[in-house]
Amino acid sequence: MAKIQVGLVQMSCTSNKQENLDKAVAKIREIAAQGAQIVCLQELFTSLYFCDEENYDNFALAEAIPGPSTDTLSKVAAELGVVIVASLFEKRAEGLYHNTTAVLDADGAYLGKYRKMHIPDDPGFYEKFYFTPGDLGYKVFKTKYAKIGVLICWDQWYPEAARITSLMGADFLFYPTAIGWATTQDQDTNTEQYNAWQTIQRSHAVANGIPVVSVNRVGHEAGVDFWGGSFVANPFGTVLYQAPHHEETLKVVELDLAKSDSYRTHWPFLRDRRIDSYSQITKRYIDDEA
What we know:
Blueprint: E1 3-10, H1 17-33, E2 38-41, H2 68-80, E3 83-93, E4 96-104, E5 110-115, E6 140-142, E7 147-150, H3 159-167, E8 172-176, E9 180-182, H4 187-208, E10 212-215, E11 218-221, E12 224-227, E13 231-233, E14 239-242, E15 249-256, H5 259-266
Parallel strand pairs: 1-2, 2-3, 7-8, 8-10
Antiparallel strand pairs: 1-15, 3-4, 4-5, 6-7, 9-12, 10-13, 11-12, 13-14
Helix pairs in contact: 1-2, 3-4
């Protein structure tokens, strides 16, 4: 299928996990009615962004994958005939947790999961306290409508992750995200940060010749204004749609997957890669001590 309809759900959350899940389901129904075939939810959509603090009580938010949330979403996916990309807090075993995205196909089948590979640790984003780095490697999922690559938030700053996922045959990349501005920052800093965030992801589209879809949350939580700004870029980095910064938004964007071949043919970055010269990329830093 050359043309597909991708749905972006940009929403705010509360401290009530069931309320957030119910809200997400309602929005999936709404955007499916607008024609969406693949729907992406934001990072950790069933809760507030709890990583603003190191609090052991927050581990109670985690669940098995597949589990209760994927069971609910699977039924919705089958009923509506849509693919759902759902970012959840995974409890893998006692004391072992991941930041994980599950993919449900349009018939409700659970296709698998991707565990976030790059885990940040910054003021207000203490993810290393909660999440073990992913150990499943990079993943693509063959859905009814397209072969999709899924990465998560902090992964979006790493061209290596986008490259590998693209080389695995992804038709486009999804980035469920939770990122925002500290409320103490000035507007120039806010603008610079958002522009950098969007630019790096648009560059992944250009370098790999495939569309990129990034879905962020909105709302004020614990000193952070999540900046929304969810967007879709075509295979040459052109922004096809950008959501507002402070509003909940549903948007369906058409992606013409056939255009990737044209961009990759006219700008043959994959053809001209010198894979024989890249061995040093696996080093932490290239210096005399390495």
